[in-house]
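Section: Multi-chain targets

For targets with more than one molecule, the full set of components is provided together so that the structure can be written out for the assembly as a whole rather than chain by chain. Components appear in the order listed by the source. The example entry contains two components.
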Amino acid sequence: MAGAAAAPRLELREISKRFPGVVANDAVSFQVPAGAIHALLGENGAGKSTLVKIIYGVQQADEGEIAFDGRPVHIGSPREARALGIGMVFQHFSLFEAMTVLENIALGMDEPPPRGELETRVRELLDSYGLALDPHRRVHTLSVGERQRIEIVRALLQNPKLLIMDEPTSVLTPQEVEQLFGTLRRLAAEGCSILYISHKLHEIKALCESATILRGGKVVASCDPREESARSMAELMIGGSLKDLSQKSTGAAGKERFVVSALSAPGEPPFGTSLKDVSFMVRAGEIFGIAGVAGNGQNELLAVLSGEERAGVTGSIRLDGRELAALSVGARRRAGLATSPEERNGHAAVPGMSLSENALLSARSRMGLASAGVVRAGATKAFAAKVIEAFSVKATGPGAAAGSLSGGNLQKFVMGREIMENPAVLVVSQPTWGVDAGAASFIRQAMIDLAAGGAAVVVVSQDLDELLELCDRLAVINEGRLSETMDVTGISIERVGLLMGGIHGGAHAAGQAGAAAGHDGRSPAPRQPEPAL
Amino acid sequence: MSLDLLVAILMTVAGAATPLLIAGLGELVVEKSGVLNLGVEGMMLIGAVTGFAVATSTGVPVLGALAAMAAAAAASLIFAVLVLTLMANQVATGLALTIFGTGVSALIGAPFVGITTPTLGPVFPDFLTSSPLLRLVFGHSPLVYVGLILTVAVAFFLNRSRSGLILRAVGESDAAAHAIGYPVLKIRYLAVLFGGAMAGLAGSYYSLVLTPMWAERLTAGRGWIAIALVVFASWKPGRMLAGAYLFGLVMTMELQAKAAGFNVFAPELLAALPYVATIAVLAIISAARRTGTAAPACLGKPFRAAA
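Its structure, encoded as tokens over all components, is:
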């Protein structure tokens, strides 16, 4: 791709960055030619984020050189990066919820033109790329895909020569991903280089023409993703071979274990989503998935099912025929309903407390860790130690503070704590969010084993691939409503994607990719129709 | 009621409202940047005593007002270093600043008790204040006009200027503002200093305009009302103006009721009226606003740049 004469758009030479106790980047070198889409691959903690921060001027490298269009450059701040022509779309969007789209765009520019002119330019850009976005809407009313478009427009207004995309698709529906790829391909065709960071390998295969793989802060391989398999790249990333999940249950058998019907709840002001008439049923031995883009009521659903939120909740939650809706969190736990929320640090676990104490908090009644109000310290410690061992949690022991564990290890502990209680029903949200591939496959296996033992498992996840791999049946949540349940075998990904994007009912399904589908008119914040690619 | 009396009452309302307005606008800007400074009362006292001391020593009340701003800004700088650089708890530090200001002002003010000072009185020529109605327009201390101009200026700054947009962005999401490349801490420092200067100016109004003498705890808790007014005003300068004048009216009613010999209640109860009104208004507002507050999302949270 790179012409013989042309210098690469971006070249990193021996970039190193150390933090106390960790080498985040160790002599990393690679090149991105002009107009290329280059992938940066690696597990969490491989050093991708640090590297990107160095390129965007948020951090400075300890050693090494960056050359841009052949000239060595020093990038001291994001402002200097933008001046060079480097744009960035953040993983966690750097947006201001209470402000309008236009204000957000203006904030991302160093010398924005006056309002009127800016609006004209934004509208031109949106038209030219076929992106739907209303400049005067406040950000908190927008879908995640629309939010990402703000970031992209923000970056494109500066006519970037290099666009960095940090995990851009982790929160998008399949259709939104396709649209994003269309935009990126067009940008690349126009000569803008793209540095694409992701761990979704099939996307990288579809989009990128070269890839650099990082592990432990070092470049371990470079490859052409189009010629690799997702599995081979994954093995390069983790530096070992991947284990296959054992066959999941056939799912047909089992009685109705967990039945939720007509569940409604008000959302938490100011930006919460209310649940509207959510119904689903999970059989014993079954894994039921709830797919959906973040912020569509998943957290509210978890809080209502766990019993954290009972004010204003209507509907019924039955476990083996017993009504739980009126019970407290503790009573639900005793009845056999275990839940694990999305946020592990600070919600599922108390970061400042030890693993023993954290085990006590949720398992005290079912595991008999306290009697007559007095903690049985020995039993608690033994239980925590058992969880640590059974789930191969890397920790110094039951006395280690929860906050000292890495995300993946803490998640293994939290999941282990719930699963070792041997619940009749387990409801988990984002069980493998931000967890490295090894731990993720361990956690998924544990859920399969739990279901195989006769429990009903509900997995709420944004990762559709995960749900397809794990679940027997799934439904999609959008703006607090749950779609009909679908069998995973023979499911239409397109249909799931449309449901995730907020298109209900069968009329608009398969084949249309949302081209003609309007919003359903029921949502408080109507979504723009997605243009076809 | 005669016109003269009505004008006199309205003039008193403006007088009572002005320091609340000025200090409140300062705190409003501080809070918009995401910092909660509960030390307004302390900074006002520092301003009041500094203004008094400088005005009596130099004989120039304007210098007093300027010195008041500088002194209170200096006090707010201590607060800023503690909560922004050292990331101390903002609530506790703000309370400490008030206690500190109370003590320091009493110490500095001790030699000045019982002296009177030249005041920052009406500035317009006499012929403009000959009739009651003209007096209502032109007969105020310059600080009353400063308060009104400041309202417009702060409203314009926050809603129309780019710097104001950035300041709001910092208060809305410090992490996002940092990621884009704005100097979060620097912006907050400037906001806190502005809030300090305004609190100082408001404090000097008590010692240079309302009562041209110094007494310990001269501001009598008005700094707290100014803070409450920020919430009352939903962080909007226009509503701050309305709120300050409304409270000015409540305070004036208390005085008038006393003067008119209206003593159905104990006088202490009347004196408590503005404070009761503060609590009532805050309770009503937070009950009415079930869909969330207009508060800046990062209000009171310390900011640590991501490693």
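Chain B touches chain A through 21 residues (CB under 8 Å).
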